Every structure is written in C-alpha cells, then in structure tokens.
Amino acid sequence: MADAFNSSWNLFSKNIWSSDPEMNDDFVSDDLTVLKLYRKEAYAIAEKHDVEICDIVQAIVSMKQIISQGHKNKFQNFAGIDFNKPVNRSAYLIRYAACHTGLVKQAMWRMFHRKPSIFVDMLLNREYFNVVSLGGGPGSDIVGFCSALQEFSNCINSLDLTVVDIKAGWVGVLQSIIEKVICCEFKNFSFSQMLKDVSVCTQFVVADLTNEKFSENEDLIDALVVADVVLMVKLTSFLPPEEKLHLILNVSEALHKGAMLIFIDCPYPSESFELATSMVNLYEEQIKYDLDNSALGAPVAIESSQATVAVFKKL
Question: Backbone phi, then psi, for 197, in 5-degree steps?
C-alpha cells in the first residue's frame, strides 16, 4: 500500500505540477467534458418528467433572480429553490454544476501542490475512503473532489460517496452521473479515470442541516461519524449567521478524530469556525475559477466562481 502511494505521489508531482500551481490543459478538457456530462443528465431528467427546454430556460432566469435577491438580503428569510421540481434540477445542472465542479477540483489540486502533507497520511492509511457532501444536490462537489484524486486511485480500493441534502428530488442523480461517466463518451474525464479500478458506493441522506434536531437524524450522524472528508461547498453563504454557526458546530461535533472538513464558499464565516474549538485550521486560500465553455457554446452556464478554501481537521 505504501509503495502504491509513493508511486502515485511521484507521478503526480512529476507530471502534473510545475513550479507554479496553475491549471494544465487537462482542466480545459475537463471543462468541456463536464459541461456535456451535466447537460446530458439535465436532459435525461427533463425527458423523464416531460419538461420542455423552454421551461428549463425560464427556470434558469428565475433561479438567477432568486439567488441575486437572496444575496441582497443576506439570505434572511430565504425561501430557497424547490429542487424537488425536475425543471429546477435540470436548470441547476446546466447553469451552475460544471463551474462548481471545476472550482472544487482547482481548490484540491492547488492544495495538493502547496501543502501535500494534509492528505498524505489519510490516503496512505485508507483503503476505504468515505466522502460526505453537505447540501451537495447532484454531487457536483464530489465529482470535483474525486477528479483531483485521480492520481491516487491505486491507493484506494473503495469510495463511499454520500450526498446530504434537504431536497429528496436529488436522490439517485449522483449515481446516474457516475453511470454516465463510466461510458466511453466520457472515458477521458479525470473523474472517469478515478473510477477505473475503484469500487464505488453512493448513498443519499435526506436531512435539514439547519434543524435543531440535527443530532436526531440517525442516517445523517451515521454518515458523518465515518466520514474521512466532509465537503461544505457553496452552502453556508445561503444561510443567515445563526444557522451557519449551528451547522458548523453540529458537524464538527459529529466527526471522528482526524476527519477533514473542507470549506469552499464565500463569504468565509471565520467567527463561526473559531467557535468550533475541536477543529484546527490547516489551510486557507482565496481562489477564483474560470470555466472555459467557449468551445461548447454554452453561455448559459456561469463562467466563474470564487471562494475561500479552508481545511479543518478534527482534533
């Protein structure tokens, strides 16, 4: 196992990174592939539920307005978007999912380059790797995270991927995406490379992460206590301050010693994390991701996303 890890790490360092942690051409290739992938999933949802393309376009326009208004009001009394409606799931996949996947992938690659020691011990000692996405919807953050791990696929025998979300409409979407990725059409996608020799298990947990009865959701707690990595991507920015604090404290209490919490969002609720005294900050960086959608002619997708990346370890 140690030899496999060392081999992967040497290959990763030699072939992927130069002296400057910038993206290589694989990112551009992945941008185009992931745009096609999510568009295909969006159309599959639309076809299954008899949703017209014009309805998806209108849902995208409405989604933009709702989110913009939410930002203006700091998401106080934010009713959210009903992703139990198929048209909204399709709209999200087309507009936001690809850029969020790219953002997470870039964040992880930069982290591996700048501070590789963060994950070395975890990858060396985990044949079974558990990743939990909080508020992850279709699992676009998981796709980005695992894409960045492709060089270490021979260190991991099994991936357990769990999406936690309040909207049950997302059930099965990550599994559907994985099944599409395995097909020849997407064989060059870095996420597909990651899945070649790895057993993958997906599950979906329906949970209100802001509910006062957080600890009473057995499925949620069961997922968190075995998690090696918890992803908190583009989640807290949609919550008022008091709910951010409760969420961060509840999650930190549930994690086992050594588990990682990866925060990728903007703004960064530093005061809330400072109150989570069982977590230590290992890494912090501001990043911006620019999605290359020119070759696909997909201007409807957001073209950039920025965030603070912060990594915490449970003491």
Answer: -120, 25
Domain of 199: which CATH number? Answer: 3.40.50.150
Does pTM top 0.85 for this prediction? yes
Tokens read off for 273 = 């994390």
Is position 262 within any domain? yes
Assess if residue 13 is contained within a domain.
no
Q: Please list, in sequence order, all residues whose beta carbon lies within 8 angstroms of the beta carbon of residue 160, skipping any fewer than 6 positions away.
A: 128, 129, 130, 131, 201, 203, 226
Is residue 241 over pLDDT 90? no
Residue 183 · residue 37 · CB < 8 Å: no
Q: What is the pLDDT of residues 87-117, one digit of tens each?
A: 999 999 999 999 999 999 999 989 888 888 8
Domain presence at residue 80: no
Number of domains forming the structure of the chain: 1
